[in-house]
Design a protein that fits this description.
By secondary structure, the chain is mostly helical. The protein has a domain of 163 residues: Tetracycline Repressor, domain 2 (Orthogonal Bundle), CATH 1.10.357. It has 13 helices and two strands, in the order αααααααααααααββ. Strands 1-2 form a two-stranded antiparallel sheet.
């Protein structure tokens, strides 16, 4: 079932303080300036966040789309005003997770040195590890349970989430190759390789194994270092391994 969703090799895939108050008084603590305050989430965003939290509950994540729809504390009328149906809520979760996972790739800039490439990949890896440790195991289980009833949902989620992440990572690796930073002969295969390294918490959760003893930072740092070393560096016009 999981292979049908990911494909065989796809599985190897949110206070500042303000100095203020009356003159002579103590500074006001934990006050967010109005012009710096985070925007109030829309009802749609709030629903997606609530659904993500429900899926991340290791003791009772919703097992089907309808139970997820009912678990997030909004009325049917409120949800219907934001989502065409319950399936669209699930797709929106995948879109939000993909956005969080690719933020470092989208904001890290063009990889102009190996250090920049490594730092960007580590930031990407930590975001991915977090999602694979929290919401995504519950999402994968839900999709597996929904497979026969709604075979198109898995493809919609894959296109909105994992496919987008993989595409952005391939683009970053190709840029690193073009810049002469890393040797990337097959961006798709090498992106799959790195994603496989970062999915350990997902695999652990799906087969009910104990969480890994090493920390997320340790694992991600080691995985990225190993990956970068395996890609090698480009010196002049000759690709060389370290």
């Amino acid at each position: 079932m999981l292979d049908q969703f990911f494909g065989h090799d796809r599985l190897r895939f949110l206070t500042r303080t303000e100095q203020g108050g009356a003159r002579g008084s103590a500074p006001a603590a934990n006050v967010v300036p109005h012009n710096l305050a985070a925007p109030i989430p829309t009802r749609r965003t709030a629903a997606v966040l609530a659904a993500s939290e429900a899926l991340a509950d290791p003791r009772g994540a919703p097992a089907c789309v309808r139970s997820l729809w009912r678990s997030i504390g909004h009325s049917e009328e409120e949800l219907a005003a934001e989502f065409e149906d319950a399936d669209e809520l699930v797709v929106a979760i995948a879109e939000q997770k993909a956005s969080l996972m690719t933020q470092a790739l989208n904001t890290g800039g063009y990889p102009r040195s190996e250090d920049v490439a490594r730092e960007t990949l580590v930031a990407f890896g930590l975001a991915a590890w977090n999602e694979y440790s929290t919401t995504l195991p519950g999402l994968v289980r839900l999709l597996a349970a929904e497979g026969q009833r709604n075979p198109t949902l898995k493809q919609r989620v894959f296109d909105a989430g994992p496919a987008l992440v993989a595409s952005r990572l391939r683009q970053f690796l190709s840029q690193a190759d073009e810049a002469g930073i890393l040797r990337v002969s097959d961006a798709q295969a090498q992106a799959q390789q790195l994603m496989g390294m970062l999915r350990e918490p997902l695999y652990q959760a799906l087969v009910h194994l104990r969480p890994p003893k090493h920390t997320a930072n340790d694992h991600v740092q080691e995985s990225v270092q190993s990956f970068v070393h395996g890609c090698g560096r480009v010196k002049g016009n000759v690709h060389e391994l370290d």
